[in-house]
Amino acid sequence: MIRIKLITTVVLTIVLLTLLLYTVSTTVLLKSYEVIEQSLMHENTVRVSGAIRNYSTALNIKLRDWAQWDDTYAFINDQNETYQESNLANTTLANLEINFMLFLNADGGVVFAKLIDLDESEIELPTDALVSTLTRNAGIAEALTSLSGVSELVQYDEKILLIEGLPILPTDGSGPARGMMFFGRFLDPSLIESLTELTQLPIELFNTTVSTPPTDVEQATEVLNTGDEYYVATLDKDTIAGYFILRTSAGVPVSTVRTTTSREVYAQGVRTMSLFIPIAGLSIFLFGFFVLVLFELFLLKRFARLSKEVAGIAVDKLTGAHVFEGKQDEVGALATKINHLLTQLSLAQHKEEEAHESLKKSLAQTEQMNKLMVDRELKMIELKKELARHTTQNGDLNTSGEEVHTESEAGDS
To answer: What is the DSSP letter of 171?
Structure first.
């Protein structure tokens, strides 16, 4: 019975440990992979945001070469044809990879403006609506008033335009500003593709004020509008996404940006768990089996032998009865005590046998004495009957009595 109970206990322990391992693996370890995955996605989202900011910075550096230049400084005053023909052709904008170029004098008047489609740089686009939009922008209007630099996002014709503006100064940076110069670049598919190659992450823009975005973008926008700068969410079992909002300098939302990546970290975690759990379960099983083997060798087998030897001892033959003691551990100590008990029982049995023999002898002597007494009484009865017959026949009671008395004494001796 103890063997069955022990095996049952070990099996139940193995099952419970395996369940515990599975629970811990799925709730703790796998959760840690999700945390790592979200952390990496957050870093990727920051990287995409940084790439857009870096592009604005690069655009500002390009603009500085133009805005802080003696030729440009002179052009604002004289608007000479040579500067315009040499520097303001469509190919110049195409080579600078900008869509828009704007010169304003110190009073805010338009000196020169040009807008092209970079995909077809020979085609110029109307600029009046764009200039009007820019001058109404609060950040740009403030920059025009103070003739200071500005970096702004403007929504124009359902597109997003990156604007960089700097005051027009001589090459050495001295002197009063004669106006403002602006470079602009649409966040168009070609620029998005370029940023995607740079970050190695897909980039999507969603103008939430123009069209209804996907559900996940809509939810992310709601969260981001509560104050968070970045937001990460799992789209499905294979994809995770990061979001942030492009805002104007005044904090007005312009577009929600989404970048996605495959859930390689989580998938690796799942693969690791799929290998770890069976291996750990097998290890627990082997450990339990090893424990059972040790119990069998060092405990159960010895108990079984001890039980068999005790069961084989005849109750009526305790003399010389002995069980194997083996090592002097708990089982050996128990065997020693059993041997001591058997010795005591053997002595007690021996004394009992001696007492029994003595009792038999006493009973035999008593029986012999009783038999003698009974024989004597029977003889007395017979003698009395014989005496009575002789008395009746002879009539000499006294003589017969003395003879009978004489014969009785002779019989007793």
So the answer is: T
Q: Which two tokens stand for residue 307?
A: 């039980």
Strand order in 203-206's β-sheet? 203-206, 253-262, 239-247, 231-234
Q: Which amino acid, one-letter code, is at 118?
A: L
Q: Report angle CA 236, 241, 246 to the nearest 5 degrees.
A: 150
> DSSP letter at 154?
E
Residue 329 neighbours by CB under 8 Å, 6+ apart: none
Q: How far apart are CA 232 and CA 239, in angstroms?
A: 11
For 160-185, what is each residue's pLDDT tens digit? 999 999 999 999 988 788 989 999 99
Residues 6+ apart with CB under 8 A from 93: 99, 100, 101, 114, 116, 118, 121
Q: Is 88 helix (H, G, I), strand (E, B) or coil?
A: coil
Query: What DSSP element (H or E) covers 295?
Result: helix 264-295
How far the first Cα of the chain sits from its last, in Å, is 74
Predicted model pTM: 0.67
Give φ, ψ of 165 to 5 degrees: -130, 140
